[in-house]
Amino acid sequence: MTNRPYLAAGIAALAMVATLPGRSHGLGLVTEPLIGDLAVDRVAFATIGFWATLAGAAFCLPCGWLIDRLGVRAMLAVVMIPLGLCVLAIATLQPGSATIGLPDTEAIAAGRWAALPVPAELFWLVLLTRGLGQSALSVVSLALIGKVAGGKAGPVMGTYSFVTSIGFMAAFAGIKALFEQGGADWRTVWSSIGGTVLVLGFLVGAFVRNPAQPVAVSGESKPIGHTLGFAMRSLAFWVFAIATSLYGLISAGVSLFNQSILEDRGFDRSVFLNITIVGPLVGLAANLLTGWLAGRIRLGLLLAVALGILAASLFAFPFVTTLGQVYAYAVTMGVAGGMITVLFFTVWGQAFGTAHLGTIQGAAQLLTVLASASGPLLFAIAKREAESYLPVFQWLAWVSVGFAVLAAVTRLPRRPV
Known about the structure:
The chain has 18 helices and 2 strands.
C-alpha cells in the first residue's frame, strides 16, 4: 500500500462512508419515521443526539493513540464490526422501552437542573454508533490516508475526498431507492446499512495492510512529525479545527432536520431526498479542485474562501422560495462542504507530519464531534422557541464570516524534517 497511495485513498474513503450511520447525515435520513414509530419527542431526540455525540467524542483520543501503536488494519476491524452490530440493534427497537433522564440543556442554560426522560436503549445505541462511527472510524480513515499521503497530500486528499463523496452519494441514492422504489420502512433501511458495515469490517480486517511511514532525513526508519503538544500550541491547529467544527455544527443540524427545514420553506419530502444527492454531487468537483489548489495556494486562504461561500449560503437561505433557489442553496453548501472537507483532511499531515498523526487528528476530530453534537440541539431549540429555523441561519452566517477573516491571516508552522 505504501507505493499505492490512491489505492489507500479508496480504502480510507470506504471506511469514511461506513461512518454514515454514526453521523447526523445518516440518522437524518430516517429521523422522521423513527421518532414517529418510537414516539420520541423532537427535542428529546435532539437531546439524545447531543449527549450521545458528546460522550462519543471520548472515543477519538484513545483511538488515535491506538492507531499510532497498533496500526490502521487492526483498528479498522475493531471499530467497524461493533459499529455494524449497533446499527442492526437500533433497527430492532420498539416503542415504550424504559427511560433514563438526561440533563436538560435548556434548563441548565437557565441556571437550574432538570432531567429530560428519553428511551434508554435508543440513547445507549446512538452513543455507541456516534463513538464508533462519527468519532473512532473517522479518525482511523483519516489516519490511513494521512500516513500514506504524507506532506504532499493535496492530490491524494482530493482523490480521497472525491471517492468519499461518490460513496456517500451512492449510499444516499441507494437509501432513497429503498424508500421510494422498494417501499422499505426505516427498520429495513437501517438493517441494510448495519449489515453492510458489518461485512465491510470483516473484509478490511482480512485484506488491508498497514502503510509504511515516511522516514527522517537522517535515513532512520521511523516516522517524522511534531507532537500533539506542539500542534495544540500552534494557532493553525485551533483555527482549522474550530472552523471545521463550525461547519460540522451547521451540517449536523441541517442534516438531521433537513426535511423539516425545507418543509418550513414550502418544499416536500421529494425535494429533501433529492437535496441529499445534489450536495455530495456538487462537492465532487470542489473536492478535486481544492485538492489541486492545496499544493498551490495557502491552505488558510482556501479555508477563508470556503467559509465565505458557506456564509453566503446561510445568509441567502431565509430568502429561498422557489425550487431553483433551493437547489442553488444546496449547490453553494456543497461547494463549501467539499472545500472544507479536503482542507480538514489535508492540513494535519502538511503542518505536523505523520509520527503522531493519529493522535493529532484524534484531537481535531474530537472538536468536530463536540460541535456536531451541539448542532441538532441548537436547531431544534431554535425551531421550538422562534417557530422557525431562520434566525439560527443568520447568526451562524456571521460566525462563519468571522472565522473566514481569521483563516485568511493564519499560516501553517514549518513542516518537520
